Amino acid sequence: MSTKPIVLASGSPRRKQLLEMLRIPFRVIAPDVDEHVLPGEKPDAYVTRLSRAKAQAVLPRAPGEVILAADTTVVLSGRIFEKPTSPANAVEMLEQLQGKTHEVLTAVAVAENGRLEQALDVSRVTFRPNDRRTLEEYVATGEPLDKAGAYAIQGLGAPLIERVEGDFFGVMGLPLRLALDLLAKFGRPYRFTR
Q: Is 71 an annotated catalytic residue?
């Protein structure tokens, strides 16, 4: 079994934190990928395309290495919520999520040389009803500004949440069970001891 670090194709502090939590050796190469939704693109196709594009963008910079990439999006009634463009946009997104259940889609891609495998996680998150002042106070912390759907379930956004159905880690940005299954296919099975 290889002990060589994998490459995390992501600038996300959450994904980094999850790999550190599991003591998986890795190094980061942040991909430069346009994350805009294509006209008529469905949410599952969108996150799957982006996770693949992130892995492929890093491949030339890490030849022969195992690359892990992921992309997360929030979907309400078929509408994709990207990262907010401003604090006002973040409050507007959060207002739309209040008291409702939305889906969080996270696609994972693992690549090495010419091979790429993917998996998709879909979880459901229900927001508690919150007033506008509460949402404005949350946005003022700065936390939601680089998050799909404008919230961090594992951070200060936790009080906004009523219920999660599915993979909590998928909502955070990296469904660990899927990532570990894919890494195992590339000869990197998870071990508690190194």
A: yes
Q: Helix 132-140 vs helix 87-97: angle between axes, to the nearest 10 degrees?
A: 140
Please write the tens of the pLDDT for every residue from 2-35: 678 999 999 999 999 999 999 999 999 999 999 8
How many Cβ atoms are within 10 Å of 120's Cβ, its own excluded?
A: 15
Domain chopping of the chain, boundaries: 6-185
Q: How far apart are CA 121 and CA 151, in angstroms?
A: 18
pTM of the model: 0.93
6-185: which CATH architecture?
Alpha-Beta Complex (3.90)
The whole-angstrom separation of Cα 177 and Cα 138 is 30
Strands (E), 45-100: 67-76, 79-81
**Active-site option among 34, 44, 71, 146:** 71
CB 186 within 8 A of CB 110: yes
Name which of 22, 108, 34 is nearest 72 in CA terms: 108
